[in-house]
Amino acid sequence: YAVLERTDDPAEITQASGQELKVYYTRKNFAVSYDSNGGSYVAGATVPYGTQYQLTTAAPTRAGYTFDGWYYDSAFTQPVVDRQLDTTQGKDLTIYAKFDANHYHVTYDANGGEFPAGTVTGSAVRNTEGLRNNEDSIVSQEMVFDQTAAVTSDKPARGGYKFAGWAKDPVASTVVYKSGANYKNISETGTDITLYAVYTAN
Prior knowledge:
Helices cover 0% and strands 36% of the residues.
């Protein structure tokens, strides 16, 4: 006697006493999907219930961010440990990619001028912290990708010229970034970048 409970349409079977009855099941498959959270596409997989399945070794990429693992939930509270996926939940699964915003440095090159001696202004770091060179012509500032931050208000001086602002090109004549103004993603990739002082002749 047996009742087949794992079918969509349960069936009851009665056999004569002493007769052996074998029941076979077809293991159900579940879909594993990867939510790259704004990153590059990662192909999903079909996984049989209860089997050992390891997540893909392909890490998604996202400009300005560093991949920080896969999670069972979009709030990133339940990490997938050792890439070993729990396939006993009996349902399709979506795995979520976590990314951390890159920290990068913006280096300000006085471009033939010098930064004045004195106290630090804004969030620029002076040579007393080791990020400004011996000629007092470079200042460096840390920023975070996708967060707004002010360009240094320190203004370099150059004989016969007036400081106008900053640009990514050392020979630029047009200001792209104004001293002390707020900007987001000066580095479009979240990697270190140099801004050069732009001057106008007196």
